Amino acid sequence: MFHKFAALFLLVSGLSLPLHSQTRPVDSEGHQWWQHAVFYEIYPRSFMDSNGDGIGDLVGIDSKMDYLKSLGVDAIWLTPCYPSPQVDFGYDVADYENIDPMYGTLADFDRLEKDAKQRGIRIIMDFVMNHTSSEHPWFLDSQSSRTAAKRDWYMWHDGKGPGLPPNNWISEFGGSAWTFDAKTGQFYYHYFYLQQPDLNWHNPAVKDAMFDVTRWWYKRGVTGFRLDAVDTLFEDPQMRDNPVLPGLNKYGDPKEENVYNTKLPEVHVVLRDLRKVADENNAVLIGETWTKDVSELKQYYGDHSDELQMPMDFMFTKVDKLSPPEFRRQIAAVDSAGGWPVFVLSNHDIVRSYVRYGDKQHDQAIAKLMASLYLTLRGTPIMYYGEEIGMENNDPTRKEDVKDPIGRVGWPQEKGRDGERTPMQWDDSPNAGFTRGVPWLPVPPSYKTVNVAAELKDPSSILNTYKTLLALRHQNRALLDGDYVALNENDANVLSYLRRYKNEAVLVVLNMSAQPQDVSFDLSPQGFPAKSAHTLLTTTATGSKESSVSHLSLEPFAVYIGAVSK
Ligand code: GLC
Ligand code: CA
Fold it and tell me: Based on CB atoms within 10 Å of each CB, which residue in 33, 214, 328, 385 is the most buried?
């Protein structure tokens, strides 16, 4: 009866939607596909090399589609693989509607998209909105003369005086954010490298051209975008100086507060409009949103949930210590923001979580603990390639080996981001099976044991823990749709919570300490008087099928996940 009803509801609501609007719910809660999905970030340079040039490519990714399917991911986010001079390894785009030959062709992309779709995996592209490459034809035109057709597509300004930039804004990647161009005698603005000039989003022509880029990819089968550096789209039209803070940053520049060149209110107008285009295509917008608190995060969802469906929350990339009170506080904050939470442990800009959370003694157990945390919370997780096998950072030890330019400018305080971008470790053959050539970045010696092939054979590996968790997430209604209830909130060592959905619930217990812990729960106030839980996952060797909720013993850094019913 219930099912018939749901089907009828879907049919009717489907019919009443406008022709282009395809935001269909996937369950009776009205959730959209991306709320039930697990996303997986792929750095194309480093995932799989098919032609032996040492650089990963689309054919390589395609060859691992069965792996991704068996892992249990629903969508892959490809970081930029567009034509690019690769100054910022693809985040300097010279053509938004093509594939860089080093990664393949549009035909390779189409095949990848088709093979993914066959397996129920969606493709999310990276949309570098804030800036283009200085070699993009738009910028070449803009730079050519003060009267060029696209002069106003970028931010050109006179200096304050001979040799002086228009104001004190500092680039995120070191030095002034302004570069003088002798040809036309003006400065242009770049929040990142000087080869990444900022687009002028106050110009409607820029907005139109960029929105068309998203339509172009939607037509090719893409189902969403991760919006790069979205905080930095707009700058103060009056160009006021930023307040200067005491001290110098790691590049030796004065520290400043980016009041006038980040998070301007205009960005929300653009996001609302971009969302309309996304909704016409049943697509999702994910934001690289570096919010400092929940009130900023709320803004990115939009006052009427009409901006980003998935503004990334980076709290797990910043807590960096296994602190139950701190996690409790932050989870509750994000959970209360009003939107659908998004959880991220690491990415291509951040030291890998294996290193950040590890204590060098229990690293394997801690990796499983962190996986169990962000894959069982209410919200959508975004994984980073290699996290599922416990890949570590492999940082350069000599300045001359550094590939990421910020590592050369900031050495040794800032070693750059090479360490978290090393090749995926597939097996124990040379270069971890990533390439038959010379990899663009070196694999760490630990690849001999830390690799997909070896971990598939070990039932208690990090990889198999991820697979179990991902399978659970997809089958268990409480994990998909249940609310989040913090438990034992005064416990300083063990983080515990309940995910409740109607008559079922999942109890998650995470020992974040190096000592064994005994915990006890009374779940009757939460509506679950049952005395025992049915074990779904435990990393404690002696774990049994049924466990008493009034007395659970956990080894150091152990995980217990169990189902309870009314
Ligand atoms: C984002 C990307 C980073 C890049 C920067 C500039 O932060 O994640 O890798 O360097 O934008 O595009
Ligand atoms: Ca290649």
Answer: 385
Euclidean distance between the first and final Cα of the chain, in Å?
A: 23
Ligand 1 binding pocket includes 349 (Cβ within 6 Å): yes
**Is-above-0.90 flag for pTM?**
yes
Q: Which runs of consecutive H residues, i.e. helices, occur in 461-517?
A: 462-475, 477-481
Residue 260 has pLDDT above 50, yes or no: yes
Residue from 91, 196, 199 to probe ligand 1 pocket by mutation (most atoms less than 8 Å from CB): 91
Residue for token pair 């300045």: 399
Quick one: 274 exposed, middle or buried, by C-beta within 10 A (0-12, 13-18, 19+)?
buried
Ligand 2 centroid, distance to 327 Cα (angstroms): 40
Lookup result for tokens 């009776």? 28
Convert the pLDDT of each residue in 429-453 to its tens digit.
999 999 999 999 999 999 999 999 9
Phi, psi of 33 (to 5 degrees): -55, -40
In the structure encoding, which two tokens stand for residue 17, read together?
Answer: 């939607």
Ligand 1 in contact with 418 (CB < 6 A)? no
Region for residue 298 given its phi and psi (left: phi exceeds 0; alpha: psi -120 to 50; beta: otherwise):
alpha
Query: Mean pLDDT over residues 290-316, rounded?
Result: 94
pLDDT per position as a tens digit, 412-431: 999 999 999 999 999 999 99
Q: Is 229 in the pocket of ligand 1 (CB under 6 A)?
A: yes
270 lines ligand 1 (CB under 6 A): no
DSSP lists the bridge partners of residue 486 as: 497
